[in-house]
């Protein structure tokens, strides 16, 4: 008899006709798509913070979550029990990875030394559970935004002591990630930004952030951690403006501070929409620069203007996202982490299973649709043909950097005007995608 989820069996594949809410309808981990298993294509991960430590509170009321294994005390004993429950969930759900912040898994102590000791104690349990289940750590990270010491930021704080504390905290979490065999490490600058420019030395803060991340790279090398570093963009919340606001701002920052060779991006859907972008745009932009590393899978409510972190259910979203992932050759060090939380009204433990099953099925369908679209070839052929005029001698000369304005003038003068444009066929292509969905 299970200790934490006694009424939930191991989740298995029931097929599209299954009416069992505790079965997968589309995610069959061993099914091959293009010669590769769904498990390896999707590399699913569960976010510890939303799934195991979120009380489902909001600004208008206390938490509603029923978690019988969690007595709410900030103790190592409670954190250990929570970790055991977490791995039972991961094992029954059948996901290969999980992610966590340091303060998700272990309580913060009165001092850094005490906090580190708490983390060591719980990390020992996490390692035991990883070995027992085969579940691996996709990436670790440090919470540099919840404690009041970080009210003005961590690496961008005007208070040097906050900067120093953050560095020590990341140092410890890098060591812990290495000890647990983590495949990567993520930086999310929750308070690395500003609320008003009236009290902000923006250039100095950016310089401090750049120095902080370079110090992290140096320490990563010194301890022999070969996992991938990620930055996770978000434009706002909790600050008015965050320096890692979207893919393009992150790329500019990484180039400015000579970090581009050390970081890739971990992109989240709800963060993309808050930045005014579709997730497909953010994925495409990152892939175009060779920095698409991992994905935080969720969605927002189009009627609400904040980061609602809901589970993804839109097949159009998952299909277009997986098109980008397949086009770049698939995940290597990263994967699809469900940075999503059940709704406040979905408070029972079994709701955690329902939510993840739905998200996994949605991405399984998206994967199969994206693969079929690529196999069909019509979309790729249209895009390739749309740029066919560039495949002539002068177009290739421009693209290789060998052409001049004089060359362009010599080409266009005899023509008198441009070759007539052809339609972009947006509506036809949207119909094409719907054909597969």
Please provide a written account of the structure.
With 437 residues, this protein is of the alpha/beta class. Helix content is 46%, strand content 11%. It is built from 16 helices and 14 strands.
Question: How many extended strands?
Answer: 14
| Strand line-up of the largest beta sheet | 7-6-5-14-13-12-10-8
Count of individual helical segments: 16
Could you give the distance between the termini? Answer: 41 Å
**Helix coverage percent:** 40-55%
Strand content: 5-15%
- SSE pattern, N- to C-terminal: EEEEHEHHEHHEHEEHEEHEHHEHEHHHHH
Q: Mean pLDDT, as a whole number?
A: 97
Integer-rounded radius of gyration: 24 Å
Uncertain parts: none
Largest sheet: 8 strands, parallel
Estimated structural class: alpha/beta
Q: Judging from the principal axes of the Cα atoms, what is the shape?
A: globular
List its salient traits:
single chain; about 425 residues; alpha/beta; eight-stranded parallel sheet; two-stranded parallel ribbon; 16 helices; 14 strands; about 45% helix; about 10% strand; globular
Compact summary:
The protein has 437 residues and is of the alpha/beta class.
Helices and strands in order:
Blueprint: E1 12-13, E2 23-24, E3 32-33, E4 36-37, H1 38-42, E5 44-47, H2 48-52, H3 76-93, E6 97-101, H4 102-105, H5 112-133, E7 136-141, H6 160-179, E8 184-187, E9 193-194, H7 202-222, E10 228-231, E11 241-242, H8 247-256, E12 263-268, H9 269-274, H10 279-288, E13 292-296, H11 315-327, E14 336-338, H12 349-376, H13 378-386, H14 393-399, H15 405-415, H16 426-436
Parallel strand pairs: 1-2, 5-6, 5-14, 6-7, 8-10, 10-12, 12-13, 13-14
Antiparallel strand pairs: 3-4, 9-11
Helix pairs in contact: 3-5, 5-6, 6-7, 10-11, 11-12
């Amino acid at each position: 008899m299970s200790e934490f989820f006694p009424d939930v069996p191991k989740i298995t594949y029931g097929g599209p006709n299954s009416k069992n809410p505790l079965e997968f309808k589309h995610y069959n981990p061993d099914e091959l798509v293009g010669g590769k298993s769904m498990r390896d294509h999707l590399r699913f991960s569960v976010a510890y913070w939303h799934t195991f430590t979120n009380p489902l509170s909001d600004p208008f009321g206390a938490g509603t979550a029923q978690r019988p294994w969690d007595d709410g005390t900030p103790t190592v004993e409670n954190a250990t029990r929570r970790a055991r429950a977490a791995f039972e969930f991961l094992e029954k759900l059948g996901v290969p990875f999980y992610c966590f912040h340091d303060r998700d898994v272990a309580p913060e102590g009165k001092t850094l030394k005490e906090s580190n000791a708490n983390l060591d104690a719980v990390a020992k349990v996490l390692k035991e559970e990883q070995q027992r289940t085969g579940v691996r750590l996709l990436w670790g990270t440090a919470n540099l935004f919840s404690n009041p010491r970080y009210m003005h930021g961590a690496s961008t704080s005007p208070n040097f002591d906050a900067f120093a504390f953050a560095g020590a905290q990341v140092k410890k979490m890098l060591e812990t990630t290495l000890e647990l065999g983590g495949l990567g490490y993520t930086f999310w600058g929750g308070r690395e930004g500003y609320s008003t420019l009236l009290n902000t030395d923006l250039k100095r803060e950016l310089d401090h952030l750049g120095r902080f991340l370079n110090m992290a790279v140096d320490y990563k090398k010194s301890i022999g951690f070969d996992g991938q570093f990620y930055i996770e963009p978000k434009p706002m919340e909790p600050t008015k403006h965050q320096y890692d606001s979207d893919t393009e701002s992150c790329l500019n920052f990484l180039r400015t501070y000579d970090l581009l060779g050390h970081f890739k991006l971990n992109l989240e859907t709800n963060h993309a929409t808050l930045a005014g972008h579709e997730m497909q745009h953010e994925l495409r932009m990152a892939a175009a620069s060779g920095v698409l590393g991992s994905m935080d899978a969720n969605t927002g409510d189009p009627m609400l203007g904040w980061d609602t972190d809901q589970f993804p259910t839109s097949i159009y979203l998952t299909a277009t996202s997986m098109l980008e992932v397949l086009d770049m050759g698939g995940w290597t060090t990263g994967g699809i982490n469900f940075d999503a939380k059940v709704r406040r009204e979905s408070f029972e433990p079994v709701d955690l299973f329902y939510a993840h099953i739905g998200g996994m099925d949605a991405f399984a369908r998206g994967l199969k649709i994206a693969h079929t679209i690529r196999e069909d070839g019509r979309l790729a052929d249209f895009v390739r043909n749309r740029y066919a005029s560039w495949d002539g001698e002068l177009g290739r000369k421009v693209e290789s950097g060998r052409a001049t304005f004089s060359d362009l003038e010599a080409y266009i003068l005899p023509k008198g005007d441009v070759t007539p444009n052809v339609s972009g066929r947006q509506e036809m292509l949207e119909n094409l995608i719907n054909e597969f969905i």
